[in-house]
Specification:
34% of the residues lie in helices and 21% in strands. It is an alpha+beta fold and 277 residues long. It folds into 2 domains: 2-113; 154-275, Roll (PH-domain like), CATH 2.30.29.30. The strands form 2 sheets. Strands 6-5-4-3-9-8-7 form a 7-stranded antiparallel beta sheet, covered by helices on one side. The chain has a two-stranded antiparallel sheet with strand order 1-2. Strand 4 (204-215) and strand 5 form a beta hairpin. Helix 1 crosses helix 3, helix 3 packs parallel to helix 6 (115-129) and helix 6 (115-129) runs parallel beside helix 7 (264-275). The longest helix has 23 residues, at 19-41. It is elongated and about 75 Å long. It starts with a strand and ends with a helix. Bound molecules: zinc ion. Zinc ion binds at residues 4, 6-7, 9, 18, 21.
């Protein structure tokens, strides 16, 4: 006789779950995630959240050790929902901190699917959008393989970035990624306009893999084979991708350069923001 993995009572011959228990559990998971997400997004009080979640958990046969991953999923949903049409406000950022403190959650847990990093990125973009240079917490930054100028400040960096060049030189006529676009007035930012596809690397020459850094003045790329920097003022266009960017620079012999395995959303708006400083 098998035991039900949800209620731990007898489930019948060769059976490991009651169908009703499975349904109850799955509904509970949705309720749990929604409760967290709605509380964060709708700015409701956190006062009774712990108790509500515990009620959902117990009545829907959710185990104690399943809590952390459900909290991470609820947080992911909230951040995704906010960023789908705006950057987080200072108030919303404070509420994220309060959520983290109140529930004694680690950055690691909230960043399980990258959402905590998105909150930091959103804060950087908000600063840039109002003409402020963001302060990157560089305590945990390993030494980067670049010599920055005294006058420039590190904004962000990505590791394991693939660097590609387009095979043929193409004249750049501007696209929706054109730097002339007024996408970045104030916090007038539309994530919905950022529906882009992944980098298609099939028609490109792979050059190398390394670290990409973005500073107030330049984009730096460094790997074992090559190191170079591009001044923001030499950029004439950007193609945003879901997982990368393509950049076009001034110059008769320049070919489009593409970097992948980075957050295209962040990189795109960061470059636009930096160009407006
Ligand atoms: Zn059962």
């Amino acid at each position: 006789m098998g035991k039900c993995i949800y209620c731990e009572k007898k489930a019948g011959f060769l059976s490991s779950r009651h169908r009703a228990c499975k349904t109850k559990f799955e509904n509970g998971v949705q309720l749990y995630i929604d409760e967290i997400s709605n509380t964060i997004v709708k700015k409701s009080t956190y006062e009774n959240l712990k108790q509500k979640l515990e009620e959902i958990r117990v009545s829907h046969l959710i185990k104690e050790n399943q809590k952390p991953s459900l909290i991470a999923l609820g947080f992911d949903r909230a951040i995704k929902s906010i960023l789908s049409d705006r950057l987080l406000s200072v108030e919303e950022e404070d509420r994220v901190t309060e959520f983290k403190t109140r529930f004694e959650l680690s950055e690691k847990l909230l960043d399980k699917n990258g959402s905590y990093t998105k909150v930091i990125m959103s804060s950087i973009l908000r600063d840039l959008s109002i003409g402020l240079i963001p302060e990157l917490n560089t305590n945990n930054v390993i030494p980067l393989p670049f010599l920055f100028q005294k006058s420039e400040q590190l904004i962000w960096f990505f590791n394991d970035v693939g660097y590609y060049e387009q095979q043929t030189r193409t004249e750049y006529h501007g696209s929706k990624g054109s730097l002339n676009f007024e996408l970045f007035k104030g916090v007038d930012y539309e994530m919905s306009s950022f529906s882009v596809s992944p980098v298609s690397i099939t028609e490109m020459n792979y050059i190398s893999t390394g670290t990409l850094a973005i500073t107030t003045n330049h984009i730096y790329f460094g790997s074992d084979d090559t190191t170079f920097k591009i001044r923001h003022s030499n950029l004439i266009g950007i193609d945003p991708y879901e997982d990368g960017i393509g950049i076009h620079t001034d110059g008769w012999n320049s070919v489009p350069q593409v970097f992948n395995n980075i957050d295209g959303w962040f990189m795109y708006y960061a470059i636009i923001g930096l160009n407006k400083l």
